[in-house]
Specification:
This protein is α/β, with parallel strands linked by helices. It contains eight helices and seven strands, in the order E-H-E-H-E-H-E-H-E-H-E-H-H-H-E. It has a seven-stranded parallel sheet with strand order 3-2-1-4-5-6-7, with helices on both faces. It is globular. It binds NADP nicotinamide-adenine-dinucleotide phosphate. The site of NADP nicotinamide-adenine-dinucleotide phosphate (NAP) has 30 residues, from helix 1, strand 2 and helix 6.
Length: about 260
């Protein structure tokens, strides 16, 4: 299927590794000129070089922390009028809500709620004027199934889901389409980092714990980042103009419901 994205431009945030990188790769493979961001410049440039090699596409980089005004300014300077915006950033740490300070809450809300809103605000009117725009927010399966200990993530991402539910319907008539991707456990560094504390507490090896988690999934495995990347590219395609404000769960069937 031709996704109709040749020569479009995309800003893919937090994309030097993991799910963001997979989205960048899938878009570049469709002929999109992609700008990727990440805090560690060396890792970012290495990822860009790999993506150029794999896709043959034009990949720009904007080093910086996307959760800061400076990081966002650098990203938008490298890709001033994106046709496609993929919002992504690191997830907040786990913990007991009793232990979190106001600063912890502010950091989580800034990273996973206010940063995507700021980037949508900076880009959506240009998309409306050009009569084409696609925004995909990488959130989490935690939006549907709140996860124990992930209270910062559950709260911030649910806030973003509410924001998108309203705004997606305001802009859809201009062919500006906003949706969320909700990953369950995907095979990235993040999954291993998240398993580290539990592995220590249980005296287990991280890989053993990750294998156990994968085996509990109805799919019997973790998600592959390229599977999420492919869904992202489809949601950015010319074919997705009637999919508005949806929350697409990619969790191998872990969320158990009839519909
Ligand atoms: P990952 O493999 O750890 O990759 C994170 C990427 O984001 C790296 O390129 C990292 O590069 C970049 N990054 C992190 N914080 C950033 C920031 N403030 N500014 C710019 N770049 C930043 O993580 P992932 O598994 O792809 O997860 C991506 C998002 O999906 C996270 O919010 C995570 O919580 C969520 N999620 C993941 C899973 C899963 O199973 N993987 C499940 C549910 C939700 P630098 O460190 O160099 O900045």
């Amino acid at each position: 299927m031709d996704l109709g994205l040749q020569s479009r431009t995309a800003l893919v945030c937090a994309a030097s590794a993991g799910l963001g990188r997979a989205c960048a790769q899938a878009l570049a493979q469709e002929g999109v000129e992609v700008t990727i961001t990440g805090r560690n410049r060396e890792r970012l440039e290495a990822a860009a070089a790999e993506l150029r090699q794999i896709t043959g596409g034009r990949i720009r980089t904007a080093a910086g922390d996307i959760t800061t005004p400076e990081g966002r300014a650098a990203a938008l300077a490298a890709c001033p009028n994106p046709d496609i915006l993929v919002n992504n950033a690191g997830g907040p740490p786990p913990g007991d809500f009793r232990e979190f300070t106001d600063a912890d809450w502010q950091a989580a809300l800034n990273a996973n709620l206010l940063t995507p809103i700021a980037l949508i605000k900076a880009t959506v009117d240009g998309m409306i004027a050009r009569k084409f725009g696609r925004i995909v927010n990488i959130t989490s399966a935690a939006v549907k199934t709140p996860m124990a200990g992930l209270v910062l993530s559950n709260t911030a991402r649910t806030g973003l889901t509410g924001f998108v539910a309203g705004v997606a319907r305001e802009v859809a008539r201009h062919n500006v389409i906003i949706n969320n991707l909700l990953p369950g456990p995907f095979d990235t560094a993040r999954v291993r980092a998240a398993a580290l504390a539990e592995a220590k507490a249980k005296g287990k090896d991280v890989e053993e714990l990750v294998r156990e988690r994968a085996a509990r999934s109805p799919a019997g495995r973790l998600g592959r980042p390229e599977e999420l990347g492919a869904m992202c590219a489809y949601l950015c395609s010319v074919h997705a103009g009637y999919i508005v404000g949806q929350n697409i769960l990619l969790d191998g069937g872990a969320f158990n419901s009839t519909m």
